[in-house]
Amino acid sequence: MARGTTRRSLAELTESIGDKSPVDGKTAALQPRTPTTAPLSHLVANPRNPRRDIGDLSDLASIKDRQLQSALVVSREAYLKLWPEDLDAIEDALWVVINGCRRLEAARKYGRVELDIVVKNEVASDRASLLTAAIDENIGRRDFDVIEEAEAVERLVAECAGHAGEAAKRLNRTEGWVSQRRSLLKLAPELQEALRAGELAVRVARGLAQVPWEEQVARWHAEQENAGKKQEGAETPKPGPKLRPASAPRIVKALSRFEPEPAILAEALRDYLDAGQLTQLVSALQATR
């Protein structure tokens, strides 16, 4: 042992390792912790959010007192590696909110000072992955209109090098579903607005999208006129046997014959019902919770 050094006992050496090690302690202090909350001033909504309008936030008014779900964010650096041209939109924010943009806006509106967050920079591994995360959160929401959905799907297909099958795989949808949504972008602007307003059903819109663009509106008006004439000229039908309305148990029994695939059922109902009927259905389901 060199002169001038102090002999240390085995017990002292044992106590100095692990959590009590001065070296390990310094190393741990140098490693930044991943935050679980962030002030609103450090957050910005995803500039590539597929939603044009954040919608009515009254259902999130309780966020002032409690936040039920954390917002998914990526770091400023991770986002700007993908879209450096969005620097002006990011401004001085440290975190970009990918899932939870409505929660962010509700927090600002109702006076919350910070937001619970989950940092997942792996979501920003490439553009397609980030777009997928943003689209996946919004699909199926009643206030996310089908044209916004179609535009978002189209952008994702472009990021997948034009491969609709790859986009479908990322969204856990069929390639046919992706193709149907993309076809809606071939509609004339008047028909797209009618679709948004619930005046045009998706199933009808898909057929009109196959018609030459300059003929679509005239074809739609002609179909509406023919339908009106049929209703006016229809004879009063003779009363037939009174059908018993489908009760809840009968509907459940019918559905039990199929595999329980809520996403497929939601897609079918969305294509079959108009916007007003879908709103009534969602309200009825929420009332039975």
Verbal overview:
By secondary structure, the protein is an alpha/beta fold. It has a 5-stranded mixed sheet. The longest helix is centred in the C-terminal third of the chain and has 18 residues. The termini are far apart. 20% of the residues are buried.
List the helices and strands and how they pair.
Layout: H1 10-15, H2 22-30, E1 37-39, E2 43-45, E3 71-75, H3 76-82, H4 87-90, E4 95-99, H5 101-110, E5 114-119, H6 127-138, H7 146-159, H8 164-171, H9 175-183, H10 189-196, H11 202-208, H12 216-233, H13 248-255, H14 262-272, H15 275-287
Parallel strand pairs: 2-4, 3-5
Antiparallel strand pairs: 1-5, 3-4
Helix and strand element order? HHEEEHHEHEHHHHHHHHHH
Number of discrete helical segments: 15
Q: Roughly what fraction of the amino acids lie in strands?
A: 5-15%
Mean pLDDT: 81
Shape: globular
Which blocks of ≥5 consecutive residues have pLDDT under 50? 1-6, 13-31
Strand arrangement within the widest β-sheet reads 1-5-3-4-2
Distance between the termini: 75 Å
The percent of residues in helical segments reads 40-55%
Quick one: biggest sheet?
5 strands, mixed
